[in-house]
Automatic annotation (TrEMBL):
Organism: Arachnia propionica
Main location: membrane
Annotated TM spans: 20-42, 263-288, 324-347, 353-378, 444-465, 665-685, 718-744, 764-786
Gene Ontology, cellular component aspect: plasma membrane
Protein name: FtsX-like permease family protein
Protein location: Cell membrane
Length: 797
């Protein structure tokens, strides 16, 4: 009986106040939708990566290497470590992107892969583990003359099965027919510096002997217990006979790189959802308290006839519980459709995980949290019904007790004495509006709070997007700002190529400020002995790198990346022992910097190295308006053992997956933020205008025109919207930066302190103006209704 009563009351109230309830429902649906979608995207991403890892079996530890190596030393190392379950050496032939072209005989279309700046590695299918898979999860086995191309290239260049891929070798072009596309558990992310193509063993042998490519290897290990990967890396680094001319990567790093970009979308959605939930709860508090004030006499009657406070609370709580439940159901259903769209790239690049218990529980738990939070807050607000005095409710129509009523009256009297409408600047309408805002700030505070949160929702994702898209982000990659970058590595001709290239760059009148840095493999003491420390040696006197702590390294000093400083538990001013070719030396830590390359574990020393380095990086700046893209392309064609790229394009391609993720998050935040701002402004004004009809009737009787009354409401709306937006914008530009920086530092990618590189015209001018415009436009149709109706009727409200 009681349940039917609650249900009937809820149904009737939803019909009676359908406008307010619809707006409130929309906000709750958006909150549930974003929370469910964010959690489902994260579950699908982790499930897809786990599925791909289960099928492909990536290595738990790998070491890339260019040059000669001692195969027996690798055999001895594996034999000495029983934790190694399986291992092999993967041979690869690398070609730069301009050497690869494609054609389509059916349409006559053709193109080049030169726009890609990463290394292209041709391999044969691995037999033991680290398989490259087709769309069905099967390890591909190309026949002679066939090639399987990375999925990323299929998307980037629009390649199709049946197209011809041509590789330009020293012996001429070799043609392959594209038979399909592969998913690579090791090199799927844009953060990877290379990608792999699969060909047959016969074609691999022919390609290797044709010349024009660079020979490389990856030493890969699978362990009985993946938790031993770090210990194995330490043991590997301490053995000087093993190949190490290249980056070393662990299983955890592979997983992090794969999950980072798409995971950011999920985190951004959850963050947006939390902001919307906060907005919804603030709005609920306003609506519930307003409803209690409007229906206080009905509440007094129910209490007077003997209904307990719990029963009265149950009537109202039932309505909001139904709304929260329906919002979660609708939001969950919409989230399922949105998740399928947002995870299309995950399915293509990784794998479609089989539905399991987590697939069902993840959105249910997320939606249950939203439901319980909303109902819990409603229950807390509705406890105020217990404090309503029956006499005050019936006689005065007030939810306040005698003491609260007296305190409110005294406050109003003080404000009235301080308020003078006859003095001050501006029209009487403006002064009256400001006086009303001061008197009713407790009611109007909803608008600035909502627009404060909405400003964060819009500005923070866009600031992240502009930061990661900026050419200046290169400073977070441990590199100086420059126009052109040249990498000389993965070749026996490293020294000769470096010398010729540096001389050519220095003699080019279009270039200036040529800087060469050598990557040298030092060693330092770790927790379990000596281990490799990759050090970039060069001239840092021109403040080429931004340091978090300390300063640039001088002679006898070394600067460490933030992750290396944390790893070795050192800070600026401490000393550490390093050695090269068995000769130890003690250096002082000059400072720390941020770096997202090489797993975030790098170091820098002042000096010059003319030979014996593992690789070299050369930077150059253009003069006279020269085009970095054109110059880089010219040099890249001339020096086949070097990779010369425009720095802006290098950053863009390296972070393409990340920036795509932030772009999606920024767009969603913009759309939902504006929608919520408009909805809540409309909801607030609808309720506010209903309560202020009597006040406006009095003003109308005193001679204020309808247009003046409308102007007052719109002025108050714009003023409160602008105040909330301004505070939110300032917060996003200051404290918001620290908040986001802290969240990103938890990812472990090498960023510990992120400074925004915003688009100031957009986020600090365009977005605030857009929010103020939305707030104003939301008020227009509602206030226009004041032109209708009789003011005499307002006095009776």
């Amino acid at each position: 009986m009681k349940d039917r009563l609650y249900l009937r009351y809820s149904r009737n109230d939803l019909k009676r106040n359908w406008g307010v309830n619809t707006a409130l429902m929309a906000i709750l649906v958006l909150s549930a939708f974003l929370m469910a979608t964010g959690c489902m995207v994260m579950e699908r991403l982790l499930g897809g990566i786990n599925q791909l890892f289960e099928e492909a079996k990536p290595p738990h530890f790998l070491q890339m290497h260019t040059g000669d190596y001692d195969a027996k030393a690798l055999d001895d190392f594996a034999a000495a470590h029983p934790e190694i379950e399986s291992w092999f050496i993967e041979d690869m032939v690398g070609y730069d992107s301009p050497s690869l072209t494609w054609s389509r005989s059916s349409t006559g279309e053709s193109g080049s892969l030169a726009a890609s700046l990463i290394d292209n590695l041709f391999i044969t299918q691995n037999k033991k583990f680290d398989h490259l898979l087709d769309g069905s999860g099967t390890a591909v086995e190309p026949g002679n003359g066939e090639v399987y191309v990375p999925v990323a290239y299929q998307e980037k260049f629009g390649l199709q099965v049946g197209d011809t891929l041509s590789v330009q070798t020293d012996a001429g072009a070799r043609d392959f027919t594209i038979s399909g596309f592969v998913r690579d558990s090791q090199m799927a992310s844009s953060l990877s510096s290379a990608t792999r193509f699969v060909i047959s063993p016969d074609d691999f042998a022919a390609l290797g002997s044709a010349g024009g490519g660079s020979s490389e290897i990856i030493v890969e290990y699978r362990l009985a217990d993946v938790s031993n990967a770090s210990a194995l890396q330490t043991a590997y680094d301490s053995d000087h006979s093993l190949p190490r001319n290249g980056p070393a990567v662990t299983f955890d790093m592979i997983r992090l790189i794969n999950a980072f970009s798409d995971g950011l979308v999920a985190v951004a959605l959850v963050f947006a959802s939390l902001l919307l939930v906060v907005i919804a709860l603030i709005n609920l508090r306003f609506v519930i308290r307003g409803t209690m004030e409007d229906e206080v006499r009905e509440i007094g009657v129910m209490r007077a006839i003997g209904l307990p406070a719990r029963a009265v609370t149950g009537l109202y709580l039932g309505k909001y519980s139904i709304m929260a439940f329906l919002a979660c159901v609708i939001g969950g259903l919409l989230g399922s459709f949105a998740t399928n769209l947002l995870t299309a790239s995950i399915v293509k690049n990784y794998s479609a995980s089989a539905p399991g218990l987590a697939t069902v529980l993840t959105p249910l738990i997320a939606l249950a949290l939203v439901y319980l939070l909303v109902v819990g807050i409603c229950r807390g607000i509705l406890r105020g019904i217990r404090r309503i005095e029956v006499v005050n409710a019936l006689v005065h129509g007030s939810t306040l007790n005698d003491r609260q009523t007296a305190r409110k009256a005294a406050g109003q009297a003080r404000r009235a004495r301080r308020t003078s409408l006859g003095a001050g600047r501006g029209s009487i309408n403006r002064r009256l509006s400001l006086a009303d805002l001061r008197a009713e700030m407790g009611q109007w505070i909803l608008i600035p709070l909502v627009f404060f949160l909405t400003s964060l929702l819009l500005i923070l994702p866009m600031n992240l997007l502009s930061t990661f898209s900026s050419p200046r982000f290169v400073t977070y990659m441990g590199a100086p700002e420059s126009d052109i970058r040249a990498d000389v590595q993965f070749s026996k001709e490293v020294e000769a190529t470096r010398g010729k290239l540096v001389r050519a760059l220095e003699n080019d009148q279009r270039l200036t400020n040529i800087r060469t840095y050598a990557n040298v493999l030092y060693e330092t003491r770790g927790k379990k002995g000596w281990e490799t420390l990759r050090v970039e040696v060069g001239d840092y006197s021109a403040n080429t790198v931004k340091f978090l702590t300390g300063s640039r390294p001088e002679n006898g000093q070394i600067a460490l990346s933030a992750l290396n400083a944390k790893k070795y538990n050192v800070k600026a001013g401490d000393t550490m022992t390093i050695r090269l070719d068995g000769k130890p030396s003690t250096v002082t830590i000059s400072g720390t910097y941020q770096d997202v390359t090489s797993g975030g574990h790098t170091a820098k020393m002042q000096g010059s190295v003319t030979e014996g380095a593992a690789s070299y990086v050369i930077y150059a700046e253009t003069v006279g308006g020269a085009d970095p893209m054109t110059i880089a392309a010219e040099y890249d064609l001339q020096y086949k053992h070097a990779s010369i790229v425009p720095m802006q394009e290098y950053v863009k391609q390296t972070l393409s997956y990340v920036t795509d993720a932030f772009r999606s998050a920024a767009l969603l935040s913009l759309v939902f933020g504006l929608a919520v701002a408009a909805l809540i402004t409309g909801l607030f004004l609808k309720l506010r205008l209903t309560r202020e009809r009597r006040r406006m009737g009095v003003l109308s009787a005193l001679g204020f025109s309808r247009n003046e009354l409308i102007s007052q409401v719109r002025f108050k709306t714009v003023l409160t919207v602008a105040a909330g937006t301004a505070v939110g914008t300032v917060f996003a530009a200051t404290l918001g930066e620290g908040l986001i920086s802290g969240l990103i530092s938890l990812t472990g990618i090498g960023l510990t302190s992120l400074s925004f590189i915003p688009n100031p015209l957009l986020v600090y001018l365009g977005y605030p103006l857009l929010l103020i415009t939305v707030g104003f436009l939301a008020s227009v149709p509602l206030t226009a209704g004041l032109r209708r109706g009789e003011s005499s009727e307002w006095l009776n409200k």
